[in-house]
Amino acid sequence: MHRSGRLLYSTNGAAHPIKPLPIDLGRLRVDGAAPRMWLDGMETVLPAMEFLLLRYLAERHGEILPRRELLTAAWGDRPSVSSNSLAVHLARLRNRLEGDIGEDWIRPIRGIGYQFLVPPRLPTQHGPVRQGS
Description:
alpha+beta; Arc Repressor Mutant, subunit A; three-stranded antiparallel β-sheet; 3 helices; 28% helix; globular; disordered N terminus
């Protein structure tokens, strides 16, 4: 068996879809296929574009990713999509991750792109604070 794109081919040539594995980064878990994440155990259903961006960032957590790479990962090679579209979707995703507690999950790197980090859990008296979806 070998992989080609998103399919797994057996030795007889039959193609079988590959279900992506979930990503587990401690406090954050991203579903393998459905647009869901769990932050500190709380599930959130994500819009499709935010899910694509989150999976891409989480798979490469800690790396500094250029804007162009993120644009291509989310929208392919469509030239009509601007960096502003990326910034808007990342701001929405950042709001879902950071909420009101001021954590820094998606860090902009001036002149380059973004870096995805998993901050340690902040101590709170009433558990994690989350905004609705």
